[in-house]
Amino acid sequence: MAKDPTTASTYSRRDALRLMAAGGIACFAAPNLLGKPAFADTANPTGRVVVGLSQEPTVFNPLMAHIEVDDAVHFSVFDALFRMDPKGVLQPNLAAEVPTQKNGGISEDGLNWRIRLRDDVRWHDGEPFTAEDVKFTLELITNPNFRAWRTGGHSLVRDITVVSPTELTWRMEEAFAPYLSFLAETFMVPKHILEKEADPNTAAFNQAPVGTGAFKWAQRVAGDHLELVANPQYFGDGPYIERLVFKYIPDMTVLYTQFKSGDIDLVDQAYITADHYEEARTLPGRVVTLEPGASVESIFLNLEKPQFKDPAVRQALYAAMDRGAIIDAIYYGVGTLTETFMPKESYYHNPNLPAQEFNLDRARQILDDAGWVPGPDGIRAKDGVRLSFANSTTSGNNLREQVQQFLQQTFAEIGVEMTISNMPAAVMWGEFWLKSQFDSAIAGVTYLIAADPDATNRLHTSAIGAKGGKGSNTGQYSNPEVDALLEKGARTFDPEARREIYYRVQEIVREDLPFLPLFAYTNVIGRKEGLEGFEPNANTRTASWHAAAWRWQS
Amino acid sequence: MRGFLLNRLSQSLVLLLIVSVIGFVVLNLLPGGPLAQFGLDPSMTQDDLNRLKEQLGLNRPLWVQYLDWAWRLVQGDWGHSFRDGAPVLDVIGRHLVATLLLMGSSTVIAIAVGTWIGIHGATHRYSAFDYLATVGAMVALSIPTFWFGLVGIYVFSLRLGWLPAGNMYTIGDGSVLNYLHHLIMPSIVLALVHVAIWSRYMRSATLDVISQEFVKTARAKGLSERRILMKHVVGNALLPMITLAGMQLPSVLTGALVTETVFTWPGMGRLFLDSLGYSDYPVVMGLLMFSAILVVLCNLIADIVVAIIDPRIRLS
């Protein structure tokens, strides 16, 4: 006789005991997984903050290829395992602690990682967040059919094992210290929603994301704005505001006008332009501050061009740059002199680098000594190479265009010809930039990923895209000593030991001058008076990195 | 009528085919491409970019990409935006309402005011009003729209505080009144140029009709000037305007780039500019085909309407 499937049970008393024991252990290990403590939602969010952005956020699955402006939304809707605080120190977020070699989270050889998670986190739909979600997220990134953002670091992860709902381990193919910082920009996505999707690239989730963050998705009006609402079940501090609105205003002047008229409460990317700073700081009822950014504005030299192969040329050009005048006269004093690619706020910033000095006579002397002799047209030449080059940047950026004209004149005074050849952004930053087709270019570039000092992608020989490399070393800089240091730095977990390594990297780069720094970015951030809890963070790409703490003064 | 329609439709299909081929080739030949937006991101390696290129199908030969796109289009699949992954028709649909609202209201203003100014100017030729209208039209046509927009924002929003500085509505207040309040300035600014165009066309069309024999006959019959104007002149002068309206209709649906940017209006014009900036090929091609179809369709409709109204024209 066949068993009746509805009544038959293979369940034994022993199984029941086993299950009860497992449940008991789970409750002990993760008491909050089975229920949310009542005291968590004490905040009573009120009010609305409208954040102005000059580009439209369009990618809401944080793991998919996206640009800076999307971060504003990701940081509010999602959480990563760790968070980079304004001092550049990693803090636990979804993880209960930051793993180190000292606390045993990372093995001595840097290959075995163990992550412990918080047990009181829930997705916006009420499901508990567990180690399975972390495993799913990390595996999705390296899924070849998924249009993932970067895979660097993630591609080294092997054998992810879920030990318990709040703990998981994995093995790294090779020791890679920056991965901790990479994880601070890797937002976790829900397995229970995305695993059901046939194609994660076109999932409904991507248009209405579900995260664990302080704010929940509300609605998007394409081309205009998107709205988030407070998540009262948020595990962290906050949120204190009821609605968070990201408003898209493409024109920078209009963005500023709407800040002035009170339509927007806070100006995020691309911030207030330098030419409006003087007026903005006098606006009644507005707080306008200068905040350091992570990018450095530089003249990138394509070192494969014969003009730039001679270090004397690079030194002479650097000496001929009146950077103080450029910041004061063109950028209205907004911007900070720097000698390195490392942001001043970084623990790894080397303050002992020699300061550049504007001196045209010295510049001429350097070129004379190196054998660059002025020709009949006044332009120097050596071994048949004329000291002439084109400079490119995005067209329509009036401040950069003024810098170009300024430099064109001063360079001419030392017998160097610089022509200007600008192009639209979609052309400039395409193959022209990525495949090093430029002579020289002005670009504002960030070297770090979530404040980790590793600059391999920009400075290592293996990162030269034009030579089949894997990174964005578009200036084609190559120095074996820097290569070795960068490799060592990526394998070293101890911050002090790393500091020594990156101090030396900065020294060599300052000497080699593969690019000529103009200034470190300073962002002009404006907000309405009464908006409290705002904290700038040069280690993230958005001013809205921690909107959970924002509140209106009552 | 049927022969005329079939003939025009077949011509239109060939035209759309040509537009699509030229659009696709030109767009794809531009240096840069959709991945250029990641150029400055240090974390995007060349490997990552190559992987994305393959996943988006951008590494295939151009003709394969075109045939694939065209075949899908014929089946009603306009593709997905590279930027936000949404279907192209959805992306267009989301911006269409905003554009219809702005362009619709400004067109109504332009036609009503422009027609009136044109007729009044023609019937009062060389009067102070006529001179003023002529000079006004010249000014409106010569000064760029964004200037009017910025001056409007400065005067009415920042100085007087009467009208909002932009946006389609105040976030959190979706009332009709709020929409109307936001609509006033952009639709008037946008209407300025069209008022100028309409008034000039209407003026010359009215003058044409006034000099016709049948108007003289009507006068000779002793009809009042007002009756002549309303019954004989306006109707006939409006006929060529239908073609003009037909030609302008597509722009009502494709948006006004500058005005939408100045007033942060989430319409089609801005969508086009944004999509071009990101080299979002599927959306740019979608918009191109959308406006090409509109132009063809509107011209056809205008021809038919003129033929129906004017018995002198036969569609055969």
UniProtKB/TrEMBL annotation, chain A:
Q: What is its main location?
A: periplasm
**Which terms are listed as keywords in the entry?**
Plasmid, Signal
Gene Ontology biological process terms from the UniProt entry: peptide transport
Residue ranges of the Solute-binding protein family domain? 90-454
Record localization: Periplasm
Family assignment? Belongs to the bacterial solute-binding protein 5 family.
Q: What is this protein called?
A: Oligopeptide ABC transporter, periplasmic oligopeptide-binding protein OppA
**What species does this protein belong to?**
Sinorhizobium sojae CCBAU 05684
Q: What is the lineage of its organism?
A: Bacteria, Pseudomonadati, Pseudomonadota, Alphaproteobacteria, Hyphomicrobiales
UniProtKB/TrEMBL annotation, chain B:
Q: Name the membrane topology term.
A: Multi-pass membrane protein
Q: What's the short name of a Pfam family annotated to this entry?
A: BPD_transp_1
Sorted UniProt keywords: Cell membrane, Membrane, Plasmid, Transmembrane, Transmembrane helix, Transport
PROSITE patterns given in the database record: ABC_TM1 (PS50928)
Annotated membrane-spanning segments are 12-30, 96-119, 131-156, 176-197, 237-263, 283-309
The superkingdom listed in its UniProt entry is Bacteria
Cross-referenced InterPro entries: BPD_transp_1_N, MetI-like, MetI-like_sf
- Single GO biological process annotation from the record: transmembrane transport
What are the ABC transmembrane type-1 domain coordinates in residue numbering? 96-306
Q: Write down the Gene3D superfamilies for this protein, in alphabetical order.
A: MetI-like
Mind telling me what this protein is named? Oligopeptide transport system permease protein OppB
